[in-house]
Write a structure and sequence with these properties.
There is one protein chain. The mean pLDDT is 83. The protein contains 15 helices and four strands. It has 351 residues and is mostly helical. It has a single domain, classed as ABC transporter involved in vitamin B12 uptake, BtuC. A two-stranded antiparallel ribbon has the order 1-4. Strands 2-3 form a two-stranded antiparallel ribbon.
Length: 351
Amino acid sequence: MVLRSKTFVETYREDLSLFRTIWLKCWWTILLVSIIVFPFMVGRYSLYTINLAGIYIIGAIGLNILTGYTGQISIGHAAFIAIGSYTTTILGERMGFLPFYIIIPLSGIIATLIGVLVGLPCLRLKGLYLAMATMSFGIVVQYVLFQWDSLTHGALGMAAPSVTFLGLKIDSDKKFYFLIAVIVFLLGFAAKNMMRMKIGRAFVAIRDRDIAADVIGVDLTRYKVMAFGISSFYAGVSGSLFAYYTTHVNPEYFTIFLSVEYLAMIIVGGMGSILGSILGAMFIGIIPEWLRIFFGFLGQSFHLTGLVFTQQLKVITYGVLIILFLIFESGGLFAIWQRVKTSFKSWPFTY
């Protein structure tokens, strides 16, 4: 019996390639075709859930770059998502002539600048101290959004501008699906390549042992600030897409619980993995909706106490799933995928 050996390469260019084998190219082709036909095979509500999960993916990738790759704990991620959302709505209200493909990057850039300003005073903080500092920033941002009525309209929130591209108005779930899919692919591809370059290796070195990284020549100040900036850019783009898709933003959405939800995404998906960010965001974004539908049907079928009971049961089940997952698979969904892939490669042997 012949087992598949490691892929043979002759140049560094081939070694750095993302699509190194014909089988990998075939799988990517199948995935691309599946993504294209998917919105034509599901209902409107399922597509709405998938679109939100796609927006979550972008924010989760950003947080994973900061926390999973660089080791800087942040509980203020929702603040940068809020900055992206409100930048979009404010620009749409006061500069309505700007197209969405200008506003989305601008929202990310504004979030990046604020992220760098937040990262600078946090350079000497670690662990719980850094977590508390970022959480405090998130609380301050939400307070400002509530109180600055002249700019943010306070608790009333703001309406997002419409999305138009080449005369085509993007106003349906299917149209937004393809827009979100393209942006997820571009930012995911950029993050994957970034983590394979010098900057990615510097992030991992800081995460594993910052003192050792400093000794071998890694500029801790530079790369920590870069991690905050890149993470904030992804969060800003995610917030901008969220504003466009939901058509309205409100400060009540951007709470500390949203930041914790994003932390759950990267923990469940797998820390230090771009694919883990995608899997975790899909899990956290889709599973609660499925549970809500299931327990809603259960409550109607057995004449239970209605929405309150089903909502509580959904939250309990969701929490139990997360706890069990963290106990029995700390590596996340990415670790499970790695084991499955390895078992296929080595089959029928177990090593």
